[in-house]
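Ticket #4471: structure output looks truncated?

Reporter: J.K.
Steps to reproduce: submitted the chain below (95 residues) through the standard prediction queue, then opened the result file.
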Amino acid sequence: MPPSPPPADRAALGREKLAARAHRASSLRRRVVAGALASFALAWGVIAFNGPMGVTTDTTTTASTQAATSSTEDATTEDSTTDDSSAAEVTTAQL
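Returned output as attached by the reporter:
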């Protein structure tokens, strides 16, 4: 004897359960996508505000380099002659 179809009540109940499950899965997917997009946007905002991680700023290096360069230029200016055309390279023998 072939199996009898389920009563109409059970079929309707099954369809409702499947529809509810599909709705929960869809809702969960939307929340996951929204959370991922929000965290991505937040990360980009932090990077735009602070700059990339691991990159040091050159302000201290530039300041110390400029100070060393200016003190070297001052010492060179004091030791050099007034005529720039007669300036020659200083060798270790001349020091």
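Triage note (M.O.): checked the attachment and the full token line is present. The radius of gyration is 39 Å.
Status: closed, working as intended.
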